[in-house]
Amino acid sequence: MLEIIQKTLTDNAIIGAIFSSIAIIFLGFYIRKRNILTGAASKILTKVVLTVAIPALAFTSFMKDINQKELHEGINILIWGFVIYILLIVLTKFIFARVKGDKQDVFRVLTIFGSTTFFGVPIVKAVYGSVGAMYSSIFNIAYRVFLYSYGYIKMSGVKMDKENLKKNLKEMLLNPVIIATFLGLFIWLFQDMLPQVQIGDKSYAFLRIDQTLPWLYKPLTYLDKLCSPLAWLAIGITLAEVPFKQAVGQKEPWVYSLIKIILVPVINLGLLVVLNKTGILPVSFEGMATTVIMLATPTATVAAAYAISFDKEALLTSNCSLLSTVVAVVAMPFWIVILQIIKNIGLFA
User: Fold this and answer.
1) CA-CA distances (angstroms) from residue 13 to 5, 129, 166?
2) In the chain, what percentage of residues exceed pLDDT 70?
3) Are 114 and 294 in contact (CB under 8 A)?
4) How far apart are the first and last CA of the chain?
5) Which of 3, 43, 210, 221 is the S-S candidate for 63 at Cβ 3.0 to 4.6 Å?
6) Residue 305's pLDDT is what?
7) Is residue 113 over pLDDT 70?
8) Are 116 and 146 in contact (CB under 8 A)?
9) φ, ψ dihedrals at 249, nearest 5°
10) Strands 196-199 and 202-205
C-alpha cells in the first residue's frame, strides 16, 4: 500500500494538475485582492468559459476515431448518469428527512446538482485529457435533463405543464454546451455512416473537421485550452469577493458541504465498485473517476439561481454555495490522489 501511495504522490501528471489548479485559483484570489481586476471579471470569465471554452471542449473531445471499447464505455456512462441522478433524488429524501418544507427542497436540489460544467469539466480535462472530457460531456446529458425538469419543478413549486415544459426545453436545447455535445456525439457515433473524404490512405467522415478542415478545427483547440485556466481564475476571483464569516459561523452550510463534496461522491464510487466487480455495469478507471469528480463539485449556479429566484431560502443557498466552493477547492486534490490510488490498486481497468 505504501508503494502505491508513493507511486501516486510522485506521478508528475497528477501532481502537475493538482498544483496548476490550486496555483491558478490562488492567482485569481490574489489579483482580485490587489484590485488588478474588479469583481465583475469573474462573471465575464465565467461567461466566456460557459459559452465559448466548454462548448469548444465538448465538441473537440469527440473528434476522434470510434472504437468498441469507448463506445461501450460511453453508453455505460450515459446509463449511469441517469441512474445516479434518480438514486440521488430518492436518497436525498432520506438524508434530509429531519429537515422540513422549503428548506428540505433546497437542500435536496443543491445536493443533487453540482457545478459539473464550470467546476468539474475543467478538472477532468486537466487530469484525464480528452477521454475524460468526452465522458464528462456524456455524463452531463442526464444532469441537464434532471436539472431543467426535476430541479425547476422542485424549486418553483409549479407543475411541468405544456408552457413550462416548452420554456425549459428551449432553455436546455439552446444551451451552447448542449448543442456542442450533441453535435460532437452525433459525429462520433455515426462517423462510419456519414459521407467519407479520402485523406492519404484513410477515409474520414466529412464532419470530422480535425481531419477534413484542420484550419477550422485549430481555433477550437485553442479555445478549449482556455477552459481550465479561465475557470480557475474565475473561482479565485469569486472567493476573494465573498464574506466567509457568515457562512463559516453556521452549522447547516457545513453539513451540506460535507454531504455534497464527500458523501455523494463516496456513494457514487461505492456503487460503481460493486457494479464494475459484478460485471453489471463495467466502467474504466477514467469513466469512474470522471463521475466522482463531477459529483464532488460545489453548488450549481442554476440550482442556486432557482432558489434565489423563487425566494426559497436565498440566504442559506448563498452560504451553502460559498462554503461548498471552498470545501471543494480544498477537497479536490485529495479526491484526485484517492482516485489515483484506486487506479494503482487495480480496482478499475
Assistant:
1) 15, 11, 45
2) 95
3) yes
4) 18
5) 210
6) 81
7) yes
8) no
9) -80, -5
10) antiparallel
Task: Give 241: exposed, middle or buried? Use CB within 10 Å, 0-12, 13-18, 19+.
Answer: middle
CA distance 29 to 203: 48
The number of angstroms, rounded, from the C-alpha of 290 to the middle of its chain's C-alpha atoms is: 8
Kindly state the cell numbers that stand for 166. 416548452
Domains of the chain: 2-345 (1.20.1530)
Res 22 pLDDT > 70: yes
CB-based contact 126:102 (threshold 8 Å): no
Q: Which residues pair with 204 in a beta bridge?
A: 197
3-class DSSP state for residue 22? helix
**What residues are paired with 197 via a beta bridge?**
204
pLDDT at 191 over 90: yes
What's the predicted TM-score (pTM) here? 0.87
Q: Which residues pair with 198 in a beta bridge?
A: 203
- Yes or no: say if 234 and 45 are a contact pair by the CB < 8 Å rule: yes
Cβ atoms 228, 122 nearer than 8 A: yes
193-225 pLDDT, tens digit per residue, is 999 999 988 999 999 999 999 999 999 999 999
**CA distances (Å), origin 69, targets 72, 73, 79, 342:** 5, 6, 16, 21
Let me know: does 232 contact 238? Beta carbons within 8 Å. Answer: no
pLDDT of residue 9: 67
Residue with cell 448543442: 179
CA gap 210, 345 in Å, rounded: 36
d(CA 244, CA 232): 19
Element (DSSP H or E) covering residue 276: helix 264-278
Which H or E element spans position 204? strand 202-205
Q: Whose CA is closest to 108, among 79, 147, 81?
A: 147
**Facing residues of 205 across strands?**
196
φ, ψ of residue 98 to 5 degrees: the values are: -80, -15
Q: What is the residue whose three cell numbers read 415544459?
A: 165
Indicate if the pLDDT at residue 8 is higher than 80.
Answer: no
